[in-house]
């Protein structure tokens, strides 16, 4: 489990950068985080370990796709909050797990669709939020 401290200055920067400069985010040292702020978890934790799982490698090998990050597309992110929203001053604990691996036929050939979940818990272990990611490995175009 990785640790993600939420700093008020970072909440303010994120809110301003994403055109959401609301007083709730800017003026309160214990500001709630903007919903997509949780994407900044990549600065605290190496997210995506699941896209390198053995099941994913097997699926890629079965259709001749190299499971290389250069062949990986981010398709979708969905944020789900369970109860209260995380706030500045808190430290979240996150974990990641593989949900699903599928092979689909796209316009340019097969794709390996990988769905994984990142969970965010407070210091007491209460689940506050989840981010559901969908990514796809595709065949690299010949140069």
Descriptive notes:
With 143 residues, the protein is an alpha+beta fold. The protein has a single domain (2-138), classed as Thiol Ester Dehydrase, Chain A (Roll). 16% of the residues lie in helices and 38% in strands. It has 3 helices and 5 strands, in the order βαααββββ. It has helices spanning 8-17, 23-26, 54-62; strands at residues 2-5, 72-81, 91-106, 109-121, 127-138. The protein has a 5-stranded antiparallel β-sheet with strand order 1-3-4-5-2, covered by helices on one side. The chain is elongated. It starts with a strand and ends in a 5-residue tail after the last strand. The model has no long low-confidence stretch (mean pLDDT 91).
List keywords for this structure.
143 residues; alpha+beta; Thiol Ester Dehydrase, Chain A; five-stranded antiparallel sheet; 3 helices; 16% helix
Tell me the fraction of residues in β-strands, as a range: 35-45%
CA-atom Rg in angstroms: 17 Å
Helix-strand topology string: EHHHEEEE
Q: Which class of secondary structure composition applies to the elements?
A: alpha+beta
Biggest sheet strand line-up: 1-3-4-5-2
The CATH homologous superfamily name equals Hotdog Thioesterase
How would you characterize the largest beta sheet?
Answer: 5 strands, antiparallel
In CATH terms, what is the architecture?
Roll
Mean pLDDT: 91
CATH level 1 class label: Alpha Beta
Low-confidence stretches: none
Strand element count: 5
Shape assignment = elongated
**CATH third-tier fold name:** Thiol Ester Dehydrase, Chain A
Number of helices: 3
| First-residue to last-residue Cα separation | 40 Å
> How many separate domains make up the residues?
1
What is the helical fraction, as a range of percent? Answer: 10-25%
């Amino acid at each position: 489990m990785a640790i993600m401290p939420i700093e008020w200055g970072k909440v303010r920067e994120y809110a301003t950068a994403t055109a959401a400069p609301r007083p709730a985010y800017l003026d309160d040292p214990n500001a709630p985080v903007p919903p997509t702020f949780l994407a900044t978890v990549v600065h605290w934790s190496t997210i995506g370990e699941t896209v390198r799982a053995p099941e994913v490698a097997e699926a890629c090998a079965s259709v001749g796709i190299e499971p290389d990050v250069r062949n990986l597309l981010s398709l979708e992110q969905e944020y789900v909050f369970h109860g209260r929203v995380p706030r500045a001053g808190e430290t979240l604990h996150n974990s990641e797990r593989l949900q699903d691996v599928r092979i689909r036929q796209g316009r340019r050939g097969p794709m390996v669709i990988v769905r994984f979940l990142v969970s965010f818990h407070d210091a007491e272990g209460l689940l506050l939020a989840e981010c559901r990611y969908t990514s796809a490995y595709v065949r690299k175009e010949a140069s």
